[in-house]
Amino acid sequence: MEVKTKDLWVFIETKEDGSPKKVGLELLNPGKAMAKKQGGELAAVVIGCNVNASIEAASRYGADTVIAVDGEEYKDYSTDAYTIAITKLVEKYGPTSMLIGATNNGRDLGPRIACRLHTGLTADCTALDIDAETGNVAWTRPAFGGNLMATIMCPEHRPQMGTVRPGVFKMAEPAEKDAKVIWEKISVPAEDIRTQIIELIREMDAESVDLEGAQIIVSGGRGVKGPEGFAPIRALAEALGGTVGASRAAVDSGWIPHAHQVGQTGKTVGPKLYIACGISGAIQHLAGMSSSDHIIAINKDPDAPIFGVADYGIVGDLFEVLPVLTDAIKKAKA
Q1: How are beta strands 42-48 and 8-12 bridged, if at all?
Q2: Is the sign of the CA dihedral 197, 200, 201, 203 positive or negative?
Q3: Nearest 10 degrees: CA dihedral of 67, 70, 75, 80?
Q4: Residue range 2-12: mean pLDDT, rounded
Q5: Contacts of 86 (CB under 8 A, 6+ apart)
Q6: Mean pLDDT, range 243-257, rounded to an integer
Q7: Helix 22-37 crosses helix 52-60 at what angle (to 10 degrees)?
Q8: What is the C-alpha to C-alpha distance for residues 271 and 32, in angstroms, rounded to an integer?
Q9: Are strands 127-130 and 137-143 parallel, antiparallel or unpaired?
């Protein structure tokens, strides 16, 4: 595809009501720095129905330009409609790179667009950088089951594309700013949309667990020994006003639903405080929480890898430590 600008695009995924999903706003922060580094502008691409709230948010969180497509056919996500719209926009404006949140929809959309545009896509990235001279993006993601981190580049095809995990980057501080808004009218005939949503079935527990938006997370791992072992985890989380997380080992054992899982195959989080209880610290788990502002690890094994990323460590039995912490927090708040 012909590159017409040095601009970098961020896809702002919208909800059913037209408001933005958090990951798109997060990606505006690194996107701004990358665009500036190569001498281009940052454009937010907003597609949905009644998207004024998303346009305003994209402007406040750093976009120089917002390219908006609004229509009833975009109210519910469909691969066909969104792929057609974004492909037409890319062919018209010719950006050099595009960032997409690695949500369920983003993981579906990114590869389809890349295939249409005959370019590459790096999935589930956890770090980004760009070479100012060549404009080549360095996409970093876990590889070989999360046992090492690979940096991938796509020097011969444009636009460069990648999906980035939610929670990896922090949103910039919002500012009063009026980005240039470009409205594009792209209609997709009903016969070109080959899928239709018949019914939405929501998992109730997943609806109540907002790990990506949580400021405090208390997580349990294999060391909790069973589903009942999450009782002190929940008690501490409640005392702190936080959310309960878990490692893959605890989820795979059936002790807690998948909606609570933090890590490479779960959610990527970046809370102000992350308390890891009975979690050894496998690289797959660290990939999902190492960007937390403050990490406290509680483990009986003094050599557990989790202590290598922790700001504070407590070597001890979580069933003895957590009740003491919970009681102290309750007394301090009384």
Answers
A1: parallel
A2: positive
A3: -70
A4: 91
A5: 11, 45, 47, 109, 113
A6: 95
A7: 40
A8: 22
A9: antiparallel
Give the number of other CB atoms < 10 A from CB of residue 190. 8
**Residue-by-residue DSSP string for 195-248:** ---------HHHHH--TTT-SEEEEE-GGG-SGGGGHHHHHHHHHHT-EEEE-H
2 C-beta neighbours (distance < 10 Å), count: 6
| C-alpha separations of 288 from 206, 240, 243, 281 in Å | 18, 21, 15, 11
Class of domain 8-192: alpha beta
Q: How far apart are CA 29 and CA 14, in angstroms?
A: 18
Residue ranges per structural domain of the chain = 8-192, 204-333
Q: Give per-residue pLDDT as tens, 169-178.
A: 889 999 888 8
Give the pair of three-digit tokens for residue 329: 């927090």
Quote the pTM value.
0.78
Query: Measured between alpha carbons, how far is 290 from 271 in angstroms, rounded to an integer?
Result: 10
Q: Is 149 helix (H, G, I), strand (E, B) or coil?
A: strand
**Which architecture characterizes domain 204-333 according to CATH?**
3-Layer(aba) Sandwich (3.40)
